[in-house]
Amino acid sequence: MTELKKVNEFVQSSKVTVDETYRHQFHLMPEVGWLNDPNGFVYFRGEYHLFYQYHPYSSEWGPMHWGHAKSKDLLTWEELPVALVPVEDYEKDGCFSGSAIVKDDKLYLMYTGHYEREGTRREVQCLAVSEDGISFEKLPQNPVIAEQELKDYGDIKEFRDPKVFEKNGKYYTVIATKTADHRGRILMFESKDLIHWDFFSVVLEGEAHQGIMWECPDLFQIDGKDCLIMSPIEMEADAHAYHNMSSTVAFIGEMNWETGQLNVENYHEIDTGLDFYAPQTCENETGERVMVAWMQMWKRNIPTHDLGHGWAGAMTLARTLRIENNELAQQPFPSLYEHLDNIMTQEDLTVVQENDYVMKQALKKQSYLKLTVSTSDSFEIKLLDINDHYLSFTYDESTSCLSFSRERVGYPIKGVEKTHLVSRSLPITGVSEELTLEFIRDNSSLEVFINQKETMTFNFYETTMHSDMSLSSFGKLKIKEIVLAKVK
Length: 488
Description:
This protein is mainly β. A hairpin with a 6-residue loop joins strand 7 and strand 8. The protein is globular and about 70 Å long. 5% of the residues lie in helices and 52% in strands. The strands form seven sheets. Strands 22-33-24-29-30-31 form a six-stranded antiparallel sheet.
């Protein structure tokens, strides 16, 4: 209790020192310090609870705590006290990622206890429980899954991120590990009471090109399909996909619950932007499957840290999921549209090569912009356009490919990839005559939804603040509709 009280007092006294320049309004951020993976995303007593990997004492990664916030609409967040602090022997170096489940009207957190010192590294699975959803007690039986349950099915040094769920009166959890030859492997364990666990199966094992370690698995059923999402480290690039140092992938198929194995029918990258990792889902009271992710990428500099602003990291917008053509499709959580204050709607415009379409102050710090355009001509959209500095979004009609670049805006963001990544591209499949693009800006982030199916997520940190937009056609571009709104 002493450490928990200490950290919460530190957060309250230190949050007033944070620089607000690049802070968001409707994305979850740390009040102070560092945030990464979403944890424990759950619907509990009429509200969404979202926990996260948290280092409050620095805007750099450090010994992991669990931060905590809740929301009724996934846009307006109420910060709650820190939920977990690493104090026990089995978690001395971090309460790593995990998930949440409701049992007997109590909220249980299942997380990884991380120990790494004096040449020993060990990751085990632990439980904490709460009567009110705010104050948590760690179970005396911890760890509940360790060497005895893991046996030789994985590596105790790389064994983390449990995602727990209930099915047919039993509890299951999928956990990430790796093979001896450095391939990702997802394991499943089963339990009758959340405390006593037995190994059940190897759900899926990666091939050599699919990354050296898989993280943050999440297994769920949606629209009659079983979907396993995860985050591979160092997955090999394939055409336009998997160019980030760490990626996110959806494997879609059918679970064999006799063997506990997933028969994969299709897999693909979840988000083709530069800043999306460790997605986690929950199911709400209406049965919708909702996903959030860390809106950042490993091993890249973060300007809010470089500039001494006292914070780093944020979550993406919440997204509802569905299966379309055996792929995971995403669209903004419906409450976003309830928070839009319409500024302007225009219909049936034509943009010709010699005459750009310009909108002044089109994408202010909290803005929504929707464009429905024909796909018969190539075009370029310049966002935040000033003095040859802009975010570039292009469509190439000859290849049906969308590309986004942040090269010309703000502070450089550099990572460990072989080539300096400033842009990503996405081939659009199944497009006939129209393309609908939704741009959602919250100060220093931009999320693009394409045909309410595919997404591209980016951060940027302007050195010169601006909000104009221009649209250039390489022929004669027909615009069916433009909608501009403020996110209130």
